[in-house]
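---------- Forwarded message ----------

FYI, see the RidA family protein record below. Original note from H. follows.
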Amino acid sequence: MKEIIETPDAPAAIGPYSQAVKFGSMLITSGQIPLTPAGELVAGGVAEQTGQVMENLKAVLAAAGTDLSRVVKTTVFLADMNEFAAMNAVYEQHFTAPYPARSTVQVARLPRDVRVEIEVIVDLS
């Protein structure tokens, strides 16, 4: 049975989806973009946007009773792969070894024309 995870400490879904879904011993988040919990776009470049995305992910995980240390897989979507190093510098501040698996891809466009979106899969067992 799936359980929907929602928190006011991260931006509300801007479409027909949930912030996260708990299913058995797994937690799967929707992609987080750099909106504040109030729904405002964070100013700045990919570094500032990545910082807000990570804060949003932490809030969603906290609502499910977990944290980034339990993340087993991340997927990073970038508007421009030339911004990988700047995103990665912020991303690595939030994880410690052993690091989760990760895929990073450049996409044609992201919601609200943001620079970065990240989703995670968490092992709750």
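H. also flagged this: Residues 2-123 form a domain with the 60s Ribosomal Protein L30; Chain: A; fold (CATH 3.30.1330.40).
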